[in-house]
């Protein structure tokens, strides 16, 4: 399907490429361009826009403070995919037409699956114009298992890893849970992975409800909250993100339901405002970073970084994982001594890196899955940095190191010849 869309959208891609042709330096060799495609309009635009601002902040730092790579600066070229695989494939065509070495995408595992397929086929047919797909947040587990690709590098923990972190955070007195997830590749993966983690780590826990909802379509979650309350669940476990996350928790808080919320994305932009003061101590989120991690572990450099970001933007800096991405790309390019995507891809395989919190990470060679630390944050009063001016912020409740989060992979990767 992805390949047919890729070919069918070629004309539209040329128009999109022309629109961006005047936005950057005249000479493509002047910078290292990274196409970034995520929802920048529509119901999930708040997440895409926050991602874009954090990425640009990081790139400015890499370029000005770290010298870019090989004497060149990184340049981010945004494309709005409107949460549609077809629009992401238009972005890919535009990126390859401009010989960009990277395309980056975070939101939507259905989009990621289409990109993996299209990038694979493009690279096999165009060995002199290859591109690397940098995955910054599409986390369906199968993307680095049966759907793995040499050209795909995932820099976020996959849903089975996040499910394990989430289940580890469940207190012993929670024995009844309700699962509610979005009905597409990622949500289905979370549904499966949470059940597997419960069976492995907490066989005493009973799943008293399990639902899938249409992605981005539900405007009133009150009926779902009524069902969750009636089930006797003590905790809601969900992978929802964007408005599906914010509206769900807001409905539960507004209804005054005695419920714990275990999420993967409540800490993203808009989450704190949606939760509000009624969520004090009730909401948890699996995260690679929150602004209170740095002072909690005594990392002055990381704390200064986030403080500077807060002065510029009215929302939290939660994307330490994005900084890790650009540092990996910088190191991979330097190691390859080239901007050729094939050489960079080989250089990234197995590459270790100490992230800006001081933790050890590695880009696992077997499946191109980043192995790094993760945290469970609880939304509460009394932390040093509040979130979105709510008076409450994320305090770390559980820390899982990279060595304790690594999971086996079923990936059988096909590699091209080195050149």
Description:
The protein has 419 residues and is an alpha/beta fold. It folds into two domains: 2-157 and 319-371, Rossmann fold (3-Layer(aba) Sandwich); 160-287, Rossmann fold, CATH 3.40.50.2300. It is 41% helix and 19% strand. It contains 15 helices and 15 strands. The protein has a seven-stranded mixed β-sheet with strand order 7-6-8-9-10-14-15, sandwiched between helices. It has a five-stranded parallel β-sheet with strand order 2-1-3-4-5, sandwiched between helices. It has a three-stranded antiparallel β-sheet with strand order 11-12-13. β8 (235-238), α9 and β9 form a beta-alpha-beta unit. α3 (45-65) packs across α13 (320-336) and α4 runs parallel beside α5 (109-125). The longest helix has 21 residues, at 45-65. The radius of gyration is 21 Å and the shape is globular. The relative contact order is 0.12. Residues 1-28 have low confidence and may be disordered.
């Amino acid at each position: 399907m992805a390949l047919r869309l890729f070919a069918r959208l070629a004309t539209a891609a040329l128009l999109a490429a022309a629109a961006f042709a005047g936005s950057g330096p005249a000479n493509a060799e002047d910078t290292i361009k990274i196409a970034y495609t995520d929802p920048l309009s529509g119901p999930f635009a708040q997440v895409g826009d926050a991602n874009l601002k954090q990425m640009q902040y990081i790139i400015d730092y890499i370029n000005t403070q770290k010298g870019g790579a090989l004497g060149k600066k990184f340049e981010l070229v945004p494309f709005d995919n409107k949460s549609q695989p077809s629009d992401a494939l238009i972005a890919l065509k535009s990126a390859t037409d401009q010989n960009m070495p990277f395309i980056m995408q975070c939101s939507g595992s259905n989009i990621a699956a289409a990109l993996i397929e299209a990038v694979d086929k493009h690279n096999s047919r165009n060995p002199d114009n290859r591109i690397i797909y940098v995955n910054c947040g599409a986390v369906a587990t199968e993307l680095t298992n049966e759907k793995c690709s040499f050209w795909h590098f995932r820099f976020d923990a996959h849903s089975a890893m996040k499910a394990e972190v989430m289940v580890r955070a469940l207190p012993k007195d929670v024995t009844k849970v309700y699962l509610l997830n979005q009905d597409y590749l990622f949500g289905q993966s979370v549904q499966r992975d949470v059940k597997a983690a419960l069976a492995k780590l907490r066989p005493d826990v009973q799943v008293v409800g399990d639902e899938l909802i249409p992605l981005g379509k539900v405007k009133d979650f009150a009926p779902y909250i009524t069902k969750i309350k009636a089930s006797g669940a003590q905790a809601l476990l969900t992978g929802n993100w964007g408005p599906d996350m914010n509206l769900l928790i807001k409905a539960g808080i507004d209804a005054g339901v005695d419920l714990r919320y275990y999420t993967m994305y409540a800490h993203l932009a808009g989450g704190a405002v949606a939760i509000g003061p009624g969520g004090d101590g009730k909401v948890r989120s699996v995260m690679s970073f929150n602004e209170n991690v740095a002072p909690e572990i005594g990392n002055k450099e990381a704390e200064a970084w986030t403080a500077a970001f807060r002065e510029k933007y009215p929302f939290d800096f939660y994307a330490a994982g994005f900084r890790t991405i650009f540092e990996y790309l910088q190191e991979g390019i330097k190691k390859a001594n080239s901007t050729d995507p094939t050489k960079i891809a080989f250089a990234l395989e197995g590459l270790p890196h100490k992230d800006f919190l001081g933790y050890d990470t590695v880009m696992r060679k077997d499946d191109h899955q980043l192995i790094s630390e993760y945290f469970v944050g609880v939304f509460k009063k009394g932390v040093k940095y509040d979130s979105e001016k709510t008076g409450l912020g994320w305090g770390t409740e559980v820390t899982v190191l990279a060595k304790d989060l690594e999971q086996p992979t079923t990936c059988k990767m096909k590699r091209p010849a080195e050149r």
